[in-house]
Amino acid sequence: MLKFKFKQILLIVFVLLCFSCGSEQVAEAQNELTSSILGEEEIALLYKYLKAFPDETQVSLALIDQDNVRYYGVRRTDGKLQAEENSERVFEIGSISKVFTATLLAHFVVSEKIKLEDTLDQYIDIPFHEDAKITFVSLANHTSGLPRMPSNFMTGALLNPSNPYKNYDEEKLNKYLTEKLKFEYTPGTKSEYSNLGAGLLGHVLCKISGKTYQQLVSELIFEKYNMQSTTTQRADVTDLLVAGRNEKGSATSNWDLGSLIGAGGIYSSVKDLVLFAQAQFDSTQVELALTQKSTFKSNSNTEVGLGWHILNQQSGEAWHWHNGGTGGYRSSMALNISKRKGVIILSNVSAFHKQADEIDQLCFAMMKTL
Question: Which pTM does this prediction carry?
């Protein structure tokens, strides 16, 4: 019988593509960061938010101010934070992939192949449990009522905790949809984050198109915006890939998302993501503009578009934001579309590190400097 540490089980119970949890304390790093690219305040922010992470941590940063883009990389080596050129290096972006999946949905809508309020059963022949009606928009803005993860996910995850999604194939997904699907709340009444929902959206769009997820995102997004190092195929970027690290800083497995690939299966670099970000500033890109529109208001501070979380600032401006986290990586991306400004951060900080949220805090702090 396989043995699992209690901590591992807890991680899998709450395994999400955007989550952090306990880890060991790491000695505070020395700061050797200097730059003609960043100002003193920006360097200080890097030290403040990155000092707790283990050796071999890498962070790749892009600061966008209209047409001006600054790239900066950090690596912790021998207890010191040092500059590292890694703007073209590739990381798992985790749940930022959901923005790409929502962009695929927007393409289908703009192309008049589907409507946002259409239900999945109008397009695919899966006999959903108890004839469940699920709209496309509800999957993209997390109002579907579906749980964060499918109920039959846990067993396979426990058998492979370092790569928990790998064995969650189409057969398991279909079994859940036809036999076990259950709403946790009345659809459309609130927005609660669901990896299952985003993964299901990608899965259904593939079924409608007759193409794989890689084919869809490559043809409709990556090629369109010249994102040459962005892919779901890890073998294609092996030479550029930064190794993921677990919460203790040791090398860890990459994640294979199986049938839920649309929830978090993309690899990319900050240089490629800058191209995607700058396209967001172009109002003629009707598919991207559609993803940016609010579709649900959670409260006065937070709304949801298609994929994007919309964070309303006290200044009256809005930031479109998403982050991501896997066993070996953490990412964060925030855009002020009206001002054409943004921050993109990719890292090999584990989402299970207890201070993984510092990557988001660094992103927000950097936004305030622009």
Answer: 0.93
